[in-house]
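Hi C.,

You asked whether I'd gotten around to modeling the 400-residue construct. I have! Everything is below, sequence then structure, no commentary in between.
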Amino acid sequence: MSQAVAAPVLIVIDALDESGEAPSRERILRILAGNLDQDSSEPMKLPANVRILVTSRLLEDISVELDAAPHVRHVSMDALPAQSTENDICFYISKKLVGPRIAFEDEHFRELAQKADGLFEWARLACEYIKSTNKAGVDPMDRFEDVIAGTSESQIGAHLLDDMYHRILAEIVPEDTKAIARVRSVMAQILASLEPLSMSALTAIRRHFPGISSSYKVELVMAPLGSLFAGTSDPHTPIRPLHASFYDFLTDESRSKKFFIDKSLALGGLAFASLRVMKAGLRFNICSLESSYLPNSAIPDLEQRVKEFIPPELSYSCRFWGTHVRTIAFDASLAKEVKAFLDDERLLYWLEALSLLKGVGGLLVTLSSIADWVQVRGLTTFLRPTDSHCVLVAGSCRVY
């Protein structure tokens, strides 16, 4: 081959993940990884002028085989600039929506590309829907407006990707009771979290959930879901859906059916966990500042210190614990943990952490919401004044 073709040769294997079940691509993965072929005692070698480009969703068998190969260069879609992806989708749409009956302009292509939110599959389905005007009286522009508004009752709008979501989840989630329960529990935590968190932060918080093993790893659930989420290839990158419609799909039981996620399942766990994360992580002078007399603005490396000493799970808990407590019904065991927190020196450590995180503005809101949570049950003396650092009276807080 190298003698017949001296010029560079590029072989493209597009959508390797669509080649079938994992066993069906086992051999090609071994070849691509440069491992010994079962039918030969010699390793597979390609001519020096040959390069292979493989595109794929981040499925576990593909990642395991290719990640360790030293000659394989990995490029994640997560690392590509959002604007670059949007430009590519816009170009794709401009080529798909061409025809004698279609009179779209550049601004229409850009609108659709923005609506696609980085997902080519959404753009493909949208273009197919807009072009399918084989019914009397149907105008492509009407369908375009349906897509943009998301109001059509047909296959477009909120239901455009449902079939794809069902297919992908059916491939990834096994028919195993324990596995399905884990998926639902982790996904409920992600949906109930008030901002995107990385797999490492989700795991750190999850280990403080009541009844959850301290060795449990969120990666067990999220690593195979790279086709639906960004951030699954890096434990420190926030987990986000590749398209915003996926969260809507998961939380609508009429659409997701057996894949429905009830995020209320994680609300109690997040309330307990946020308090316990602070109990374990807060300490005096958490950022090791040399002087307490300087304002935060006078500390040149404060931002770096915050990143180093306040991990994401602790930052999240400090800012949102009150909100999570308030969202669940009154629970005596949780109330005891709240009281222990407010009666302890950790309260002062929390105030310091909030200051470093530039979150002091939410202090009164948090404490007022906790007071309301207690008083809704008529337990106004539950957090009564003691030798505590904080006194809750009629929904207000004074810090001494």
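If it helps when you're writing up: Strands lie at 9-13, 50-54, 229-230, 240-241, 390-393, 396-399.

Thanks,
B.
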